[in-house]
């Protein structure tokens, strides 16, 4: 079940770059914009737009540089409140700037009630000596535990162009394919609304209503969502992964609901949120995990046989699967949303 880019309704992403003076904010932006090592960098870079074809999702990114001086604090706060995502920088060769993430910047963002994804970028990687070569996980792990709003961390260098595009790719991705509606990091589980949406999708795809997706149903689901079939060996591989981790995820009939939910939790844990969002959007869900109006079911009169099928399905799979917006009737009447 390979990943895909689920198209978002957004027409642009606004990323605001903040951090202590001298941490490399403007150089990072200049390097990303020109895709080359910057020779001369202004104290504060002008607003920069990365074109739609810069990243696979084909959504333009506008990058806003900021000054950390006290006299510009009002403007900084205004920009933060307009941000879709924040890139927070520190310098890999200056321990004090790393300490300031948790002592000043992250608490300040909370105080301002900035509720957008935060990407932490460790700049000037080329200047960090070997004696300071601590792994990024060791450095950022405790901070990320305390500040769950941090989406990811990247070390980069504008001088050597190491991972410069990645910083804004992760910022864009965090906005277009957000984690918050899908996954509870504290509980390490899918959120109830996400589970409900995936259950509905599973029911729609389970055409024979036997409580499992057989190989043909899995393949049809794959083609619908990602425009590419699964090879037999890939289907075997998917089932093997599920069976190893989720004992009730596969049975003689195919991939069960438990296995279907497990796969999506696994995608999210591995950072492949675009895969789950591609599925949700294909079946009519917006960023708030509400069905779009054009996907809401139209009440349909069922035959007696279909009535019996629906009754059996509710009893065997649970009434909560089918309770929302009278979707039961739509599921039985038509396999497609």
UniProtKB/TrEMBL annotation:
Q: Where is the Miro domain?
A: 10-177
A Pfam family annotated for this chain is EF_assoc_2
Per the record, the domain of life is Eukaryota
Q: Which InterPro entries match?
A: EF-hand-dom_pair, EF_Hand_1_Ca_BS, EF_hand_assoc_2, Miro-EF-hand_domain, MIRO_dom, P-loop_NTPase, Small_GTPase
List where in the cell it is found. Answer: Mitochondrion outer membrane
Citing just one GO molecular function, the answer is: metal ion binding
Provide the alphabetized UniProt keywords.
Answer: Calcium, GTP-binding, Hydrolase, Membrane, Metal-binding, Mitochondrion, Mitochondrion outer membrane, Nucleotide-binding, Repeat, Transmembrane, Transmembrane helix
Q: Name one GO cellular component term.
A: mitochondrial outer membrane
Q: How does it sit in the membrane?
A: Single-pass type IV membrane protein
The protein's predominant localisation is mitochondrion
Sequence similarity: Belongs to the mitochondrial Rho GTPase family.
Q: Would you tell me the protein name for this molecule?
A: Miro domain-containing protein
Q: Write the lineage as a comma-separated list.
A: Eukaryota, Viridiplantae, Streptophyta, Embryophyta, Tracheophyta
């Amino acid at each position: 079940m390979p990943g895909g880019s689920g198209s978002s309704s957004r027409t642009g992403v606004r990323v605001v770059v903040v951090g202590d003076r001298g941490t490399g904010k403007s150089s990072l932006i200049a390097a990303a914009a020109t895709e080359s090592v910057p020779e001369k960098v202004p104290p504060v870079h002008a607003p920069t737009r990365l074109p739609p074809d810069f990243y696979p999702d084909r959504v333009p990114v506008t990058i806003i540089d900021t000054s950390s001086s006290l006299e510009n604090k009002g403007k900084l706060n205004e920009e933060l409140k307009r941000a879709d995502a924040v890139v927070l920088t520190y310098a890999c060769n200056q321990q004090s700037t790393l300490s300031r993430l948790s002592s000043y910047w992250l608490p300040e963002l909370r105080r301002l009630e900035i509720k957008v994804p935060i990407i932490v970028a460790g700049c000037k990687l080329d200047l960090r000596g070997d004696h300071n070569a601590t792994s990024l996980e060791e450095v950022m792990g405790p901070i990320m535990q305390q500040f769950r709003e941090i989406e990811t961390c990247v070390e980069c260098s504008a001088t050597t162009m190491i991972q410069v595009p990645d910083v804004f790719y992760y910022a864009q991705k965090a906005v277009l394919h957000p984690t918050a509606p899908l996954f509870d990091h504290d509980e390490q589980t899918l959120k109830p609304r996400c589970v409900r949406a995936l259950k509905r999708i599973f029911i729609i795809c389970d055409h024979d209503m036997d409580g499992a997706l057989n190989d043909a149903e899995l393949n049809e689901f794959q083609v619908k969502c990602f425009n590419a079939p699964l090879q037999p060996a890939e289907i075997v591989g998917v089932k093997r992964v599920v069976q190893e981790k989720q004992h009730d995820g596969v049975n003689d009939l195919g991939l069960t609901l438990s296995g279907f939910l497990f796969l999506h939790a696994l995608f999210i844990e591995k950072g492949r949120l675009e895969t789950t969002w591609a599925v949700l959007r294909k079946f009519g869900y917006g960023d708030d995990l509400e069905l779009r109006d054009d996907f809401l079911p139209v009440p349909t009169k069922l035959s007696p046989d279909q009535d019996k099928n629906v009754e059996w399905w509710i009893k065997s799979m649970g009434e909560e699967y089918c309770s929302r917006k009278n979707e039961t009737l739509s599921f039985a009447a038509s396999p497609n949303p």
